[in-house]
Amino acid sequence: MGFIRTTPPRPVEVTAVFPELAPLARPAIRLHPRPGSPSVRDSSVGGPLLWPAREPWPHCEGADLHVDTGFRRSPTEVRLQRRLQSRWRPDDLPPAFTPEEEALKERNAAWLAERLDASPPWPAECPVPMLPVAQLFLRDIPLLRPPGQADLLQILWCPYEHEPDYKPATALFWRSAAEVGDILATPPEPYEADFPGYVPEPCVLAPEAITEYPNSLDLSPELQRMLEDWNRWQAAGADVDSSYAEYPRDFYSIHLGNAPGWKVGGWPPWGRTDPNPRYCTVCEVQMVPLLTIASREWDGGEGHSWAPQEDQAAALADSSYAGQKPTQPTGVEVGSTDNMQIYVCPASPEHPHTDLIQ
Predict the structure, then answer these.
(1) What is the enclosing helix (H) or strand (E) of 45?
(2) Which CATH number goes with the domain that contains 119?
(3) Is the pLDDT of residue 299 over 70?
(4) Higher-scoring residue by pLDDT: 209, 90
């Protein structure tokens, strides 16, 4: 953890205005992923995993459920194109690959040709190697509640959307880092991805503990009406712009409720649907959010109030150059710039997890 990111204080202390919300506070850890070169011993997004050499790498067996978008690029090609885009400026000539990138491109082309010339079955009909999404060590993310002696969480996904929900299939592994002996040096990669947004960029993390309050949709009708009472905000002396007088609940939703971005714990980011509780398929306990996989670290416009203090200049500049989006350091995009929520059973984290796009 070599850098720091700090969420600015909220413009209003929400429990000073609405003490009724205090019992609903939840701890969360914003991960603040930023492009880097994590090792297998680091917590990361899209980085290499501390994976035992003798343990089979997870593959997606649901090829019959894959949605074919016609996208035909390998993860290596996706990352190379991002590197090129990161050096592009509107007034410049198109940048060229460096010699090292050219060599990588040639090796990738040779690898693809070998795969495509291989004997049947066609690669797309074979089990597809999954891609690393996140690796989180308990020492960095103490909010994790692993089973037994585990101190490491690893999450992978298939780089294809699956019918009928049109989302990548996910796999979750808890393990003890001390029990990993020989490490798998060269994990298999899929020969293509369904969409570049399912190829995470390697990112290091700057975990930050915060306190969250529910998305307004998670509140009771009574509490929702309370948020909509402009007189209540004024009586508490809250410094809220009068432009919110007609819809003060929007101020809460944008600035005070659940934080955007990659995070562990906290409250779900509803929006695509109304709140949709998830229940454990084994013990029927209501599941809790484990990890939010976000398409954006913060929203544009007023939503940049969630941008860390160290990133405020970049947020205000709102750079739109390809590959230069400070809100999307991971390159991940799920759904229509939505979030994927991973849920686990609070009684037994080893029970099957579930996921939901919001």
Answers:
(1) strand 44-45
(2) 2.30.320.10
(3) yes
(4) 209
